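For practice. Supply one:
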Amino acid sequence: MNLIIDIGNTLAKLVAFDGDIPVEEVRTSNTTLAALPDFFLKYPFKRGIVGTVFDLTEEVKQRLSELTIPLLFLNAQTPIPIKNHYRTANTLGADRLAAAVGAYTQAPGRNILVIDAGTCLTYEYIDKQGGYWGGNITSGLQMRLKALHAFTARLPLIDSEGDVPEIGYNTETAIRAGVIQGIKFEIEGYIKHFKEKYPDLLVFLTGGDNFNFDSTIKSIIFADKFIVPRGLNRILIFNNDTLQNNS
């Protein structure tokens, strides 16, 4: 079995894979990986991979060093099973690259748009030949809500949960509807734009935030919360021989 450690901006995900099938996911602190020891003992892991969007803390390094399996740390030099055309590979987030690999693994030979609605809202494009060309990054749901509060004098910090009317009837709903509907229209705009250029486009949506899309858009979206872990797992399998030789 493979151990996938996906360390994001908000939290870390530990995923057990049996071949290419995700068996269990556990979420834990991205600065401590507190759940890692118990999770590691639960399954007969043979190898693992670590993808992170920031420098590891000393506590995380210590926990990883205690694992008794070979670990692959994803970086710009790691061989991957798609072509990376990103011009500054050293600045490319592990989550973005893994999402591209994960999506293309699910649908090889198709033009793909991956939308990750997490801390940041990202868009990644992979062509039907397996070429990753990059994407766009903007602020995610919680970041937008916090920014409205932080950069204004009187707008409150509100929860994303609650009524989302078409037109806000008070300040709270005006903010919530403005942010959530704005993200929804943004995503739909991206999808329509790429669909016009690539009629066979497949769209994968992942991340923790959910939105209610128009039926015509929703029909071409494949929701998959495991896109990034799938990509990390595929990269690990792709590098398996090298990892075994170095262990």
